[in-house]
Design brief:
With 498 residues, the chain is an alpha+beta fold. The protein has helices at residues 14-23, 50-53, 56-60, 106-117, 126-140, 149-166, 217-220, 257-262, 274-292, 309-319, 342-352, 357-360, 376-387, 425-432, 442-450, 463-466, 476-497, and strands at 3-8, 31-37, 41-47, 66-72, 87-89, 95-103, 169-177, 181-186, 195-200, 206-211, 223-227, 232-237, 242-246, 268-269, 272-273, 300-303, 322-323, 327-329, 353-355, 364-369, 392-397, 436-439. Keywords: 4Fe-4S, Glutamine amidotransferase, Glycosyltransferase, Iron, Iron-sulfur, Magnesium, Metal-binding, Purine biosynthesis, Transferase.
Length: 498
């Protein structure tokens, strides 16, 4: 999972790309990069948080009124400086790209590029394969005559159509082409989010933004205009004219984990408020709890902060018990789920969370969390709450049990790491050390996401929960291959840390 942004402005854009990445930091803590365009590319990137990578001096050195940015949380490729996006090539055309998602047929694409384009890939990033294929198609479709912007948009649509028909997986893209402008497109299933907005200037001209979430819009003065549709390509020329076209349609399957965990609660994705969806998750979970455990009423409901706060609030309200933020979260410690390995995650849980003894001691505590993936975070939280004097501890997850790896851009890499893939609910409760455990049901989660909003979602992507890899040709052999590649990436990281 990553955060991407692209901005067309009538003024230098680098500082606003930086501000946007700050608002997308929750989507990736590993690395960050900005690339701008003014007759050539200017780029700055590095490992670490946005505020660690950039200084006022190197941001001011990024010239141009068109640019793209990226915050990285790796699900493919390595953990080195060469794996940081945006990626770019000087020839043909001069094209840069930032990608959110994951390509499940990366190896096949890489082989095709080597055999047909005679190009050597410099990384194991699936984004590099996507960039090279995109660039190759723009050249192959180019006419010999000098092209205007209308011609270029037609060429662009043909190139993106080729991508849609050859690339498997999830991908939302922002790109810039030297001498042409800003490009954005989204895979035909719309798995990963991509929203857009406008800002009207005093002369009635408009600036345009594309981003993973609406989170940067308010701070920068952009008005949300909606989503880039599944299978749609958008192009902003150098004069600010916007072109849009839906190239290919397929079953709309946006990732449900965006609503459960990844997106910031103040975002609106696919015309659905993330905050409201999480409120409904908590409400549905509480109704289910009352049916399953009619004789268990906790003294207090406590969220695992911050993602579960919203759902825990509505859970407590529906149950008629007190809500308390009984776990204090240090805001300067990152999100443990997206830390690169198990030992780092475990070490940071106690750095990140401190129990409030007055809210826990001598009480029956119900902990609400967004999910149980590996069980590492949940078990440590339960141990901490037990150490602070809880009489009984109950645990409720706003998502169903996660039993399958994700090949669409979430760091759920292998069945071996997933606790629910090997243990029953009773065994998981024992492992976590809780007196009662409950997961959200699949229908209740879908209902929570789809109950309100002018959207087209009928069945979100839940492949990590139900094993339905609808947009990939995933079989057992392919799954093993992808899991082994991810294991190699993690071993590579651990070697660099020792």
């Amino acid at each position: 999972m990553c955060g991407i942004v692209g901005i067309y402005s009538h003024e230098p854009v680098a500082s606003e790309l930086y501000d946007s990445l700050i608002h997308l930091q929750h989507r990736g803590q590993d690395a960050a990069g900005i690339l701008t365009c003014e007759q050539r590319f200017y780029s700055q990137s590095g490992l670490g948080l946005v505020q660690e990578v950039f200084t006022s001096e190197n941001v001011l050195a990024l010239k141009g009124n068109i640019g793209i940015g990226h915050t990285r949380y790796p699900t493919a490729g390595g953990y080195t400086a060469s794996d940081i996006q945006p990626l770019w090539i000087g020839s043909p055309r001069g094209i840069a790209l930032a990608h959110n998602g994951n390509l499940s047929n990366y190896q096949e694409l890489a082989d095709e590029i080597r055999l047909k384009q005679y190009r050597h890939l410099n990384s194991s990033l699936d984004s590099e394969a996507l960039l090279l294929m995109f660039a190759d198609q723009l050249v192959n479709e180019a006419s010999k005559k000098k092209e205007d912007d209308d011609d270029f948009f037609e060429l662009l649509c043909k190139a993106v159509d080729y991508i849609f028909n050859h690339v498997e997986g999830a991908y939302s893209i922002v790109s810039t082409v030297i001498g042409k402008g800003l490009v954005a497109f989204r895979d035909p299933h719309g798995v990963r989010p991509l929203v857009w907005g406008t800002r009207t200037r005093s002369d009635n001209s408009k600036d345009i933004i594309f981003a993973s979430e609406t989170t940067p819009f308010y701070a920068l003065g952009f008005k949300p205009e909606g989503d880039i549709q599944p299978g749609e390509v958008a192009y902003v020329n150098q004069a600010g004219k916007l072109y849009r076209r839906v190239i290919k349609t397929a079953e709309f399957r946006p990732c449900v984990f965006e609503y459960v965990y990844f997106a910031r609660p103040d975002s609106t994705l696919n015309n659905v408020s993330v905050y409201r969806a999480r409120l409904r998750m908590g409400q549905n979970l509480a109704l289910q709890w009352k049916k399953k455990y009619p004789n268990i009423l906790p003294d207090v409901v406590i969220p695992a902060p911050f993602t579960a706060n919203t759902a825990a609030l509505s859970f407590a309200h529906e149950l008629g018990v007190r809500y308390s933020e009984g776990l204090y979260k240090n805001p300067f410690i990152g999100r443990t789920f997206i830390m690169p390995n198990q030992s780092t995650r475990k070490r940071n849980i106690r750095y990140k969370l401190t129990p409030q003894r007055t809210e826990i001691a001598n009480k029956n505590v119900l902990i609400v969390d967004d999910s149980i993936v590996r069980g590492t975070t949940s078990r440590e939280i339960v141990k901490m709450v037990r150490e602070f004097g809880a009489k009984k501890i109950y645990f409720a997850s706003t998502s169903p049990a996660i039993k399958n790896p994700c090949f669409n851009g979430i760091d759920i890499p292998s069945r071996q790491e997933l606790i629910a893939a090997h243990l029953t609910d009773e065994e998981i409760a024992k492992y976590l050390g809780v007196d009662a455990l409950m997961y959200q049901s699949h229908p209740d989660l879908i209902e929570a996401v789809t109950r309100r909003g002018r959207h087209q979602i009928k069945q979100p992507c839940m492949s990590c929960m139900d094993g339905n890899y609808f947009c990939n040709t995933i079989n057992t052999q392919k799954m093993i291959q992808l899991e082994q590649q991810r294991k190699m990436n993690r071993l590579e990281l651990e070697e660099t840390e020792t």
